[in-house]
């Protein structure tokens, strides 16, 4: 629920005896927060800012309108799996699994790997769903801090793997919220160490359209590595479709915990349509990468700002007072993400999504006035 939804709800029961049925750790949690963006230039969630061209909108509308919404999803799901496998050039002997966004895949991994004593490990700061999905499943989560400049602390990661022997290690490539594309050599040593102790590695490539490297060309060398992507950053955030590639036998086991019909016919057909017009989205990604570099250069010229290198569609920026700047930008109609309280390493940092040229110009102006 949004804040205004919460505030408008008045419980008719003064006390809530039914709360005893809700786990205590769940009651103490905060729900995943989604900022109200009504009337704002929305640059807080790393969305592709470009919509479909009008002609493609028309074609997609006609195609979706002809779907049999009265039927459960059928073989078109397998067609989508096949097309995605071609698109990513999936190696021989591998398979692909679909999720309602990457979030569902992360949850399903926690469910499938929940054996006694299991744990999940990831660098921090990182994507919040790794820890949240572990907690909700009752699996221990171990976070390993990055270095001060948001690189992998390889020694600390290797030590944590040796000590905790996690079932799953998540490596975001590039990382959220920092945009960092970590050292390929360091990643390979971590992958090997995790394999030697019998655990899984998940390479989370949510931001692959904006990065200069992918792990897909190395995945065939390992039998314990899963590669996860999403169509959200591709340009279909509203469609909610993630996918995971891995060795057939491994995917077959994880797929057993997937709910039936988790991908709707609408999600499926939108994704197939997008793949048929992949060149349109590739052009959009290229423009976003160009805008990222322009925006990074402009921000670096401002006094008191530190702009961190990024291979994603966002920029992490440190400033003297992030909260003051965030509130000032919000008053000017620009919504970004204040990540300064997420982790000590992110003190006084804002995360800025790269938008259209006009949106970026508005954001830059608002940021200058709000510093």
Task: Characterise this structure.
The protein is α/β, with parallel strands linked by helices and 371 residues long. The chain has 2 domains: 3-48 and 279-370, Aspartate Aminotransferase, domain 1, CATH 3.90.1150.10; 69-276, Type I PLP-dependent aspartate aminotransferase-like (Major domain) (Aspartate Aminotransferase, domain 2, 3-Layer(aba) Sandwich), CATH 3.40.640.10. 41% of the residues lie in helices and 16% in strands. It has 14 helices and 13 strands. The chain has helices spanning 3-8, 24-27, 54-65, 76-87, 101-112, 128-137, 154-164, 184-196, 232-236, 248-254, 265-276, 278-300, 322-331, 357-370, and strands at 41-42, 94-99, 119-124, 140-145, 168-172, 200-204, 225-230, 242-247, 306-307, 314-318, 334-335, 337-338, 349-353. The strands form 3 sheets. The protein has a 7-stranded mixed beta sheet with strand order 2-8-7-6-5-3-4. Strands 9-10-13-12 form a 4-stranded antiparallel beta sheet. Strands 1-11 form a two-stranded parallel sheet. Strand 3 (119-124), helix 6 and strand 4 (140-145) form a beta-alpha-beta unit. Helix 7 runs parallel beside helix 8 and helix 13 (322-331) packs across helix 14 (357-370). The chain starts with a helix and ends with a helix. Mean pLDDT is 94; it is low at 1-14.
Distance between the termini: 31 Å
Share in helix: 40-55%
CATH homologous superfamily identity of the largest domain: Type I PLP-dependent aspartate aminotransferase-like (Major domain)
CATH architecture of the largest domain: 3-Layer(aba) Sandwich
Task: Write the H/E string, N to C.
Answer: HHEHHEHEHEHEHEEHEHHHEEHEEEH
Overall pLDDT score = 94
Q: What's the number of domains?
A: 2
User: Unreliable stretches, pLDDT < 50, 5 or more residues?
Assistant: 1-14
Count of DSSP strands: 13
Class of the largest domain, according to the CATH hierarchy? Alpha Beta
Give me the CATH fold name of the largest domain. Answer: Aspartate Aminotransferase, domain 2
Helix-strand makeup class: alpha/beta
- Judging from the principal axes of the Cα atoms, what is the shape? globular
What percent strand? 15-25%
């Amino acid at each position: 629920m949004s804040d205004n939804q919460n505030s408008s709800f008045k419980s008719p029961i003064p006390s809530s005896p039914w709360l005893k049925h809700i786990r205590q750790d769940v009651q103490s949690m905060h729900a995943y927060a989604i900022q109200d963006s009504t009337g704002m230039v929305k640059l807080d969630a790393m969305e592709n800012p470009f919509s479909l061209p009008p002609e493609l909108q028309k074609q997609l509308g006609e195609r979706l309108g002809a779907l049999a919404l009265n039927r459960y999803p059928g073989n078109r799901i397998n067609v989508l799996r096949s097309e995605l496998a071609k698109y990513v050039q999936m190696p021989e002997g591998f398979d692909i699994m679909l999720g309602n966004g990457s979030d569902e895949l992360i949850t399903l991994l926690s469910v499938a790997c929940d054996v006694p004593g299991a744990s999940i490990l990831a660098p921090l700061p990182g994507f919040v769903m790794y820890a949240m999905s572990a907690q909700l499943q009752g699996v221990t989560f171990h976070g390993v801090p990055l270095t001060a400049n948001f690189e992998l602390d390889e020694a600390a990661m290797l030590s944590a793997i040796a000590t905790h022997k996690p079932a799953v290690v998540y490596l975001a490539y590039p990382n959220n919220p920092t945009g960092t594309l970590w050292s390929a050599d360091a990643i390979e040593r971590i992958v090997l160490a995790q394999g030697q102790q019998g655990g899984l590695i998940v390479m989370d490539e949510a931001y692959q359209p904006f990065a200069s490297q992918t792990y897909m060309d190395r995945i065939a060398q390992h039998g314990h590595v899963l590669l996860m992507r999403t169509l959200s950053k591709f340009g279909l955030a509203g469609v909610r479709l993630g996918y995971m590639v891995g060795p057939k036998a491994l995917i077959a086991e994880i797929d057993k915990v997937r709910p039936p019909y988790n991908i709707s016919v609408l999600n499926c057909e939108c994704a197939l349509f997008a793949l048929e017009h992949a060149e349109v989205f590739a052009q959009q990604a290229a423009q976003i990468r160009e805008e990222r570099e322009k925006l990074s250069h402009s921000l670096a010229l401002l006094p008191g700002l530190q702009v961190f290198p990024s291979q994603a569609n966002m920029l992490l920026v440190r400033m003297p007072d992030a909260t003051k700047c965030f509130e000032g930008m919000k008053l000017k109609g620009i919504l970004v993400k204040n990540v300064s309280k997420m982790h000590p390493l992110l003190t006084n940092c804002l995360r800025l999504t790269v938008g259209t040229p006009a949106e970026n110009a508005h954001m830059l102006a608002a940021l200058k006035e709000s510093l």
